[in-house]
Design goal:
This protein has 93 residues and is α+β, with helices and mostly antiparallel strands. It is built from 2 helices and 6 strands. A hairpin with a 2-residue loop joins strand 5 and strand 6.
Length: 93
């Protein structure tokens, strides 16, 4: 993680474990931090969890390319985007 991104996160959040940041910020700050994360994450991955008015009381976003956050009747779920290829059939001779 670039030092500038780490600095932005530590302004608003507490690093409770290496690479894990927790904080209580406004929606405006959350959006700006998420924008900075997306611009500077590089090959890394990030997940943002925040409170909202749904069945669970929270929702999340991720930068992962193999997952997509979907809404299922107000409940956020992670959808795996990895496609399983069909097994090959043995060739009979």
């Amino acid at each position: 993680m670039p030092a500038s991104l780490r600095g932005d996160l530590t302004k608003w959040c507490q690093e409770i474990q290496s690479g894990i940041y927790v904080g209580n910020v406004s929606a405006r700050i959350r959006e700006r931090l998420w924008q900075r994360i997306n611009e500077n994450i590089g090959q890394g991955e990030a997940t943002l969890v925040y409170n909202t008015n749904n069945e669970l009381g929270y929702t999340f976003r991720t930068t992962r390319l193999d997952k997509e956050v979907i809404d299922s009747d107000g409940i956020p779920l992670m959808l795996s985007l990895i496609h399983i290829s069909e097994p090959t059939r043995p060739i009979s001779i």
